[in-house]
Fold Diadenylate cyclase.
Amino acid sequence: MENFGIRDIVDILLVATVMYQLYRIVSRSGTGAIFKGVLAFIILWVLVSQVLQMRLMGAILDKFTDFGLFVLIIIFQDEIKRFLISLGSNRTFRFITKIFRSKDVGELNDSVITSLVLACMNMAKTYTGALIVIEQEIKLGNYADTGEALDADISTRLIENIFFKNTPLHDGAMIIGGNRIKAAGCILPVAQNHDIPKSFGLRHRAAIGISQETDAKVIVVSEERGKISFVSQGKIEANITPEKLQELLIGSMRKKKKAKMTGS
């Protein structure tokens, strides 16, 4: 204890911060109980090996920790991915991501925003389901490859035709990037959160899932209720008006431009 100083305090604070952020991520995905179990095992291992210095029990626990890291990576692979995404999107580390970022990624122009809002408004009126993913800094090529490549200009009529009932691409997701429709009929990861309301269907769960794994913005039009929802960072704003959707899209673009001007 005589060597305990500021460096040790900073070390403890950093570990506590990382553990807290990890717990927040895993609790949203429904694996909080497993995380608590792992934390309890680590505390037990430290007590037995370092504090009480029980050699036999410590040796047994040491064997578990030798391959335990690989087991944890397998169990928490999705959570680790989300943690790294949240770390990379943090303002403190954005200077690193700017090195590898395209200048126009995620920035929708006014005509595209207008086309998106009008299409969603019309589809909501006719109870036509839709799932639209807007690419940001994290590339969505892997998800776009699961659907049909389009590389088309964005227009209200084209969006409505793609999501028209009984068409081949109706049930999949549309991915937009660089102010163009990259692909449609795409398959997205489905969120497994236990706290998601049962009233939300597969489209809403897929929207939450892709927004948890990436920094994408997602628009959902409910086929059952004819309502529009906006999803970002795993959080959903349900039953919004077309005016609110336009405000959210413009607002997210303004934040991105402001961040770019601040960083430059």
Notes: The beta strands are 130-134, 148-153, 173-177, 180-186, 217-221, 228-232, 235-240. The radius of gyration is 22 Å.
